[in-house]
Design a protein that fits this description.
- This protein is 71% helix and 2% strand.
- With 244 residues, it is mostly helical.
- Strands 1-2 form a two-stranded antiparallel sheet.
Length: 244
């Protein structure tokens, strides 16, 4: 989608999308080199949905960026936390509406209906936990520093390189090699080096966590398995063996 279409679909302004691009919160999937026009795909739409959930909960942009850019970001747990916070927000609004109905009938408003302390406390707790888990990690800081100057072309090249490596894992599996074979283990080493070169120092501990995410997070599994059914599981098993 062209940026104007994407803005209309998501309900944000073009200026906001430009700003999100500048700070690295939401990069377009492609930029026309001749006219600078930005274009967005389904992956951008999915990330924007996550951003909008956090904005609805009044999270600062820097906190949202820290959470979403983490190498071990758990979307499922994040959605559970968001649902809990939005439920608290909904309950407060319902109390306020009930109080307004009463006021219209001449009834006195009990002032504690304006109390929003539970929601604020829960939101602050989640924000602090998220920042502690993601925003202050060395991996996140290193990745932010390394990728902040990446152009759309650079991002496309990095993504293409990762896709090519995933395809090699699929080919390795198709050729009948086991996850603990020297061929598969060499691919894991290449994968680890690629992450280190393009994002952050990928230790065995981080790599092991990524391997688990490839099978537990449906987004990653679907993306990796687009190279061949069962590739995500094969990568997970190969990484587990490598990090053992």
């Amino acid at each position: 989608m062209h940026i104007k279409e994407f803005a209309k679909l998501t309900g944000v302004s073009v200026r906001t999308l430009h700003y999100y691009d500048e700070i690295g919160l939401l990069k377009p999937s492609a930029v026309d080199e001749q006219n600078g026009y930005r274009f967005y795909d389904e992956r951008c739409l999915e990330r924007m949905q996550e951003i909008l959930f956090y904005r609805e909960l009044d999270f600062p942009l820097k906190d949202i960026q820290a959470i979403l850019s983490s190498p071990d970001y758990d979307k499922h747990n994040a959605l559970k936390e968001q649902k809990h916070l939005l439920t608290l927000k909904k309950e407060r609004l319902e109390r306020l509406i009930t109080a307004l109905d009463g006021a219209m009938k001449g009834e006195d408003i009990i002032m504690n209906v304006f109390d929003n302390s539970e929601f604020e406390a829960q939101r602050e707790q989640y924000a602090n936990e998220a920042k502690e888990k993601w925003g202050n990690t060395n991996a996140y800081k290193e990745s932010s520093e390394k990728t902040k100057a990446y152009t759309a072309e650079k991002w496309n090249n990095v993504t293409a390189g990762m896709t090519a490596l995933m395809a090699k894992f699929a080919e390795c599996k198709s050729d009948g090699f086991s996850p603990d074979s020297k061929e598969a283990q060499a691919l894991v080493k290449t994968w680890q080096d690629y992450i280190t070169d393009n994002f952050y120092t990928c230790t065995k501990e981080i790599l092991s966590g990524l391997g688990e995410m490839y099978v537990s997070d449906e987004r990653f599994r679907t993306n990796i398995d687009s190279c061949g059914e069962g590739t995500a599981e094969f990568m997970h098993d190969a990484i587990a063996e490598y990090c053992r």
